[in-house]
Amino acid sequence: MPTDTKRILVVDPQMAGVAGDMMVAALLDLGANHTKVIEAMKTPGHILRGCNGLEITVTDTVRRGIRSKKINVNVEEEIVHRTAADLLDATSACLQRLQISEYAKEFALSSINTLVSAEAVIHGQSIQEVELHETASADTLADVIGTATALDDLGIFNDTITYSTPVAVGGGLYQFSHGTVSSPAPATLEILRSKGFLTIGGPIEAELATPTGVSLLTNLASESIRFYPPMRPTGVGYGAGTREFAEMPNVLRVTLGEPCDFGLSRDEVCVIETNLDDVTGELIGHVMQKLLQEGVKDVTAIPTLAKKGRPGHLIEIIVDRVSLERVCKVLIEETGTLGVRIHSCERRILARESVPVEVIVGDTKGVVRVKVAKSTSGQIVQIKPEYDDVKSLSDQTGKPLREIEEFVKRTAAESLD
Predict the structure, then answer these.
(1) Residue 204 has what DSSP assignment?
(2) pLDDT tens per residue, range 274-298
(3) From the CB of residue 79, how many other CB atoms can be counted at a distance below 10 Å?
(4) Domains delineated in the chain
(5) Residue 77 forms beta bridges with which residues?
């Protein structure tokens, strides 16, 4: 997929989950061409073995006060069970007939592959062996093709990065071909697990996220985030689900917008905290050095006044999610603390890199590592020489450290310009 990002799309399933028909309807409400999408969705009716009829209609509806689009897929089928291979073959045959981009075709195939792979894992069989039930219906393929066509028509594959908020999966028990199961369905949960997407239970006892819906979502969104990114909204679409809920609007919202680029990159980190009031200053210094050797992004000791008037320290560590558990273990073992607090948070940062800069001070030649921070547009915002390298050069030349640092900055700026 092209990487020249000019727009942002946020798929928001945190209220009512996501299903294939909701995704198509939301994209139609966002502005995708109705005729093109509906005609594409009818393709499985001519291809899928055992499908005798496939009728698609789009209507306007209201869900708990929110106007939205509703897509209705009516299928006449003789066959209710198909193999994953049948579904994959039918998908390929349908896509050959469609006039959509290669990116859209890849998205449709990836979504179907995600779906059947999850079913294979759940059943403990290979993709060639696994037999599908609800997910093998023609409406599954129609939803996938409709979503791919709508996204292609909106130009999403050309210049847009897509995010997803946490997926509401509902709760409670419901009946399907394998009997009574709890929500989310096994295949739904397997897809969300394998893709690493954030989930939330509820807010009602019902199946809110379907296997088809999360297959589409996880192949479309590049990242699962808790909150909307900085953006200037330009369009909003609402896709209605089949059922009406008293507790909430059963709609999927999609928001298209332009990025608010202030030259900062975004990432997510974890902050680990613990309070210490029974250790020496030497131990705190040792722990801080140990944590830095473990690769944490930052560690700080903040003086505090603890219970019973004892002086203490708040240890605060910034770490990436991958290193979280290992760093917690080191902190507990080294300090003897009985517990730590963990907070997930976002950062806005400048991209940075370490660049070796060759400098000559008098008769002394040396190489100083310089940290260069740049905005997302590539503009240099800050140049900072490494202290140890500057100090070493200062010691060799007898020049003040401050003068060496300024000289290195000027040299680096000229060489990087």
Answers:
(1) S
(2) 999 999 999 999 999 999 999 999 9
(3) 14
(4) 7-259 (no CATH), 265-348 (3.30.70.1380), 351-416 (3.10.20.300)
(5) 51
